[in-house]
Amino acid sequence: MTQNNDKELQFVIEHYKEDAMDMHTAWKRLKETKPKTITKTKTKGGFARYAVAASAVLVTGMAVACGVWMMGNAGWSWRHDAQQNADAASGKVDTAKVFHYDKTPINSVLDDMASCYKVALTASDTTKCVSGEIEASNLQDVIDILETSLNIEICRK
Fold this sequence. Notes:
Layout: H1 3-15, H2 23-32, H3 47-90, E1 92-105, H4 106-117, E2 121-123, E3 129-138, H5 139-150, E4 154-156
């Protein structure tokens, strides 16, 4: 048994009196007694007060940060879309794209590039084929890779 159980058992043994009170009378007395009020003790330094204040500041700061982030994201998204459209027109794309080809004629590759980057392209030698992956972040990178690897010239129309 634990120490608390031993103390409770010892209390009952010391104070038990046979036929002193029946169960109904005991419950009635228990209901009539007023519970002791719990007095609030002061903590040293008012820790609870500071904890509440710190929590309020934290919640307020998080709400402000979320609002700023949401406003910034909405504005960034709009600016980002406008910039992305301008980049697409000039042949630039923010993210690297990967193109996969397996013995694909250069005309088909240039058609893919034209539809992706919204610009017409022509090659000096249309008999060449492309095999492999081309990873590029903008159209000029793709053109440089194809010109170097196939020894051809690619022109924008």
